From TrEMBL:
The chain crosses the membrane at residues 42-64, 85-115, 135-160, 211-229, 241-258, 270-294, 306-325. The keyword Ribosomal protein does not apply. The keyword Transmembrane applies. Keywords: Cell membrane, Membrane, Transmembrane, Transmembrane helix. PANTHER family: PERMEASE RV2963-RELATED. It is a multi-pass membrane protein. It is found in: Cell membrane. GO terms for cellular component: plasma membrane. InterPro entries: DUF318 (IPR005524), UPF0718_permease (IPR053166). Belongs to the UPF0718 family. Pfam families: ArsP_1 (PF03773). This is Permease.
Length: 332
């Protein structure tokens, strides 16, 4: 237990980094008990911690991804049938792009290749919602139990969402140009270890460049909530005992656009201020899976009825998950 606490607090949570930043700010004459000093400590600590963890994770995940180009992934997915295909597609989403807008091109590619729409939607739901990066970051902030539970319910939502869409016969509501696109059967490129390292570096640079603005904004909002908004206001609005807190957090999250790394610092601050566990997780899920930019992109590939069905299924799932975590918060 002591070993795990050390891993969670000092390796994943990097509490030593918070101490170093606090000491540096104190030497510069800042009072860490003041709103400004506390906000700056929160901001620098969270930004540096997230970028360190993110860099390690993206490099490692991208290296793994180099073994599974889209054409090879399509071939593997096509071998599965029924619920096992949805489960595999959801699991595949855990090692693919970190935001919904990045997932949609792959979703379109899988759909045009002839994969059933239910399977591709399991992938689309899982990809931005549940990934190895979110598991590590949520563990560093909320602990391993909550992180594992979050990943499990996210995967369940992805599998059930895909199955529902398939059972409702939504194949006809994919845009015609997607369904009629010619399938391209390519041989999986043989890469050397050096090629894979170069690919991982390129993916790291590209992803960092893309997500950096959202991390800065997310941590900035988190720092403001953490040090400027009184606890009683957050508890009154988003406390786990209020029935409306989960739907409210979900609706607030939809218009926003960020990846999981930008949403986590906001959720961390809300939780520290007294928001319900399920409430902040619902907010995170809505931001990452139902952002307006991703829905607009998805509309280019599917017809309004399918887009509406997808949105309703995921929204109801997120709200249910939020209530479930609020009810079971005592277990964590």
């Amino acid at each position: 237990m002591e070993v795990w606490n050390f891993i969670q607090n000092q390796i994943l949570g990097m509490k030593w980094l918070n101490v170093i930043i606090g000491n540096l700010l104190s030497r510069l004459g800042l009072d860490l008990e003041s709103r400004l000093g506390g906000s700056l400590q929160f901001f620098f600590y969270d930004v540096i911690k997230i970028f360190i963890l993110l860099s390690v994770l993206i490099f490692g995940i991208s290296y793994i991804q180099s073994y599974f180009p889209p054409e090879r992934t399509k071939q593997i997915l096509s071998k599965f049938r029924g619920i096992s295909a949805n489960i595999f597609a959801a699991l595949l989403g855990t090692v693919t792009p970190f935001c919904s807008c990045s997932s949609i091109p792959l979703f379109i590619g899988f759909t045009s290749a002839g994969l059933p729409v239910g399977i591709t939607f399991s992938f689309l739901i899982s990809s931005p919602l549940v990934d190895l990066g979110s598991l590590i970051l949520i563990t560093s902030i909320f602990g391993l139990q909550i992180a594992v539970a979050y990943v499990i319910v996210g995967l369940v939502l992805a599998v059930l969402g895909g199955l529902l869409i398939e059972k409702m016969g939504m194949e006809a509501y994919v845009e015609d140009f997607i369904r009629s696109a010619p399938a391209i059967d390519l041989e999986a490129e043989s890469l050397t270890r050096r090629d894979r390292i170069i690919y991982a570096k390129e993916q790291l640079a590209s992803t960092i460049k893309k997500v950096a603005p959202y991390i800065f904004v997310g941590v900035g909002i988190g720092a403001a909530i953490h040090n400027f908004i009184p606890t009683r206001y957050v508890e009154a609005l988003l406390g786990g005992s209020h029935w409306y807190s989960v739907p409210l957090a979900t609706l607030v999250g939809v218009p926003m656009y960020a990846d999981i790394f930008g949403a986590i610092p906001v959720a961390e601050s809300l939780f520290a201020k007294g928001a319900g566990l399920g409430t902040v997780l619902s907010f995170m899920m809505a931001v990452t899976a139902l952002s307006l930019p991703s829905l607009i992109m998805l509309r280019k590939a599917v017809k309004p009825k399918l887009l509406f069905t997808f949105t309703v299924i995921v929204t109801i799932g997120i709200i249910f998950i939020g209530y479930l975590f609020n009810a079971c918060a005592f277990m964590f």
